[in-house]
Amino acid sequence: MKQYKFSVEEIKKLTKSMVILVDSREKKNTHILDYFRKQKIAYQVEKLEYGDYSFMIPAAAAGEDIYFHRDCVVERKASLEELSGNLTGERERFEKEFLKAGNDGCKVYLMIEAPGGYSDIIGHKYRTEFMPAAYMASLKTFEHRFDANIQFISPEYAAITYRSLRLQSNLKAKRIILFVDARAIMHIYGILYQIHRELNSPASIHTKG
What we know:
The protein is an alpha/beta fold. The chain has eight helices and nine strands. The strands form three sheets. Strands 2-1-3-4 form a four-stranded mixed β-sheet. The longest helix is centred in the middle third of the chain and has 14 residues. The protein is globular.
């Protein structure tokens, strides 16, 4: 586990150089990548061990590549139907991803492109036979068992709020602490509203490999 020390001003510069990591297996995310290209937001596609999105700071800015793919990832679901499949027929594989992330000490944020959220689940406004009570119970199980942060968002806003994963220094500990601002993280999703409160201990900063 490698720790880095940067001044507040250095951290501000580093965040401007942040590159979003997109898992190569991620599907149906054209609306997100189109937004990145339109806004000239740097991203690169590569295979992530778990999750669909994370970020890194390149060597040109930090002296060496610094990856956060084992600290914070976003697992995206394009619909309640997709998530339903993950919680039923694909549940074992889905759980293994969360377990692997948990073993690495990585926080997973489950973002679902379904603006109706829990109301749509309770009202069975999705096209599968997964019953609402079982659906809700499964989500709450994941939330509790894997400490998952579950957020719902409309697809048209899925690329807007993911730009600035903010790294703020803890002056008392004199080390980098990973804080995700309640209003923004990496300009992809508006889903990480609670992270600033949750990540109150020094983050693990990893070089890849």
